[in-house]
Amino acid sequence: MAAFYNMIFLGVVGLTFIIFAEPIVAVFTAEREVAIFASSCLRTISYGFLFYAYGMVLTNALNGAGDTWTPTWINLGCFWCWELPLAYVLANYAGMGPYGVFWAAAIAFSTLAFVSAWVFMRGKWKRKMV
């Protein structure tokens, strides 16, 4: 239930960021070239918010159950071992430039959700002695 509510909340936040990216970015910079990249970044990363909302709750549920190592490994894998190399490859070898970095973040958010759901549903955390 918490994951569902978090998905609604971050879905609304993400939709707000997608629709109002330019006005939000304008608060932080007046430089045209920076604003173009920042708006695109805000929109692209927001596409992953629904998934990230779900994954965030599940990884924190594992933490709350006393299984702190599993979320550590999930985050290490999804963000350090997957997102960073993916960003490098998309930016440099796929010819996407900075947009590849933005997409790598959205993809990593989605990956976190799927991995967290898989680990959570396996139920190994239920046997954790605290």
Percentage of residues in strands:
under 5%
- Overall residue-averaged pLDDT value: 94
Residue stretches low in confidence (pLDDT < 50, at least 5 long) are none
Report Rg.
Answer: 17 Å
Characterize the largest beta sheet: strand count, sense, and whether it forms a barrel: none
> How many individual domains?
1
Distance between the amino and carboxyl termini: 24 Å
Q: Structural class of the helices, strands and pairings?
A: mainly alpha
How many extended strands? 0
Multimerization state: single chain
How do the SSEs run, as a string of H and E?
HHHHHH
Secondary structure tally, helices: 6
Proportion of helical residues: over 70%
Form type:
globular
If you had to describe this structure to a student in words, what would you say it looks like?
The protein has 130 residues and is mainly alpha-helical. The chain has one domain (2-127). The protein is 80% helix and 0% strand. The relative contact order is 0.15. The model has no long low-confidence stretch (mean pLDDT 94).
